[in-house]
Amino acid sequence: MLALTRTAIGSSPRVGAPRVRARAAPVATAPPTALPRRRTSTTSTRTRTRAAVVAAAAGAGAGAGAGASAAIPQIAAAKKAAAATVVAATPTLAYTLSTVVGSNLAFPALWALTALPCCLAFVNPVYVFSVGYGLAVAYAGAGLLALASLAGMTIPKLVAYHCVGAVVYGVRLAAFLAWRSVTWDQWGKRAEKAPEARAKSLAARVPVVLCCSLLYACMCSPMVFHVKVAHAIGAEYGRVVGFGLAVQWCGLLLEALADHTKSAYKMSEEGKNRWCDVGVYQRCRHPNYLGEVLFWVGLYVAGAPAMLVYGAVSFAPATLGLVFIVWLMTSQCAKQDEKQAERYGENPEYNAWVANSGSLTIK
């Protein structure tokens, strides 16, 4: 190549010969948005680059000295164009993830997000309904915001409050349950009697992880549709979304307050042999379960306008998840009332408290 260039510069131009401006041979490049099925090999790219440079140098040799000098920057441009082919031909992970939220893969992606923390069941199967449950909700909220950001979406404030509420709820609940598993003496005994603890082998725990994570994805699905069609929701639904968010955050705060109140009371000398009837427990026997129900009802209502816009099919997973959690909390209230009645039923103070308080409601 250098020999050809030197020949072009050192030779004398012919008299009367027209000056020919050297041009680099065009190099085909892939469109920036194209995603080829396989990456262009390094060998073929080098071959095209070398051919382009030789062709440019040969064209320079046929021209005059001034034309040869002009060919030098064009040779460099040919190298850059050929190298750009490899960059354009390589799909990136960020580009792939950025298309998830706006596609039909949004719900499977949500399922994958909730499945990650549920894998704690391989350490202890009980974690899938405790720490793994809280982290699954947190992963769902944070993951959806991250995917929307990768897609270049403008995230409205109401959508942010919706997802951030899930993150705060999940992190707080997971931290509390992890702390209780260490500090509560009876946690180990009760964990051994839990239904999920029967999954001893690795193969038996896989269905538990898949089923529980799918359930959590259904419960969190209103956030998916809110992220997908937030900008298509009419202004008339703004109050509905705002009301749902208010209920969601009130439930989050109520459950956190109830968990803290009962834990502190049970660690005191008085609470070791007595039911908890202080603070938020004065008028409601299970305010922690009430907060749980309010959180999920609010999350559902805040996403209802988006589900209306997206289509009736979006209500199926969300409604399934909401019905399950309401049924679970209601049944747990009945079981706890039955256990406390067996233990404290002969105490007049306990009976008076039951008469003046609601099980899952404030009386």
From TrEMBL:
<dbReference type="InterPro" id="IPR010721">
    <property type="entry name" value="UstE-like"/>
</dbReference>
<feature type="region of interest" description="Disordered">
    <location>
        <begin position="1"/>
        <end position="47"/>
    </location>
</feature>
<feature type="transmembrane region" description="Helical">
    <location>
        <begin position="202"/>
        <end position="225"/>
    </location>
</feature>
<dbReference type="GO" id="GO:0016020">
    <property type="term" value="C:membrane"/>
</dbReference>
<feature type="transmembrane region" description="Helical">
    <location>
        <begin position="159"/>
        <end position="182"/>
    </location>
</feature>
<keyword id="KW-0812">Transmembrane</keyword>
<dbReference type="Pfam" id="PF06966">
    <property type="entry name" value="DUF1295"/>
</dbReference>
<protein>
    <submittedName>
        <fullName>Predicted protein</fullName>
    </submittedName>
</protein>
<feature type="compositionally biased region" description="Low complexity">
    <location>
        <begin position="14"/>
        <end position="32"/>
    </location>
</feature>
<keyword id="KW-1133">Transmembrane helix</keyword>
<keyword id="KW-0472">Membrane</keyword>
<feature type="transmembrane region" description="Helical">
    <location>
        <begin position="315"/>
        <end position="334"/>
    </location>
</feature>
<feature type="transmembrane region" description="Helical">
    <location>
        <begin position="130"/>
        <end position="153"/>
    </location>
</feature>
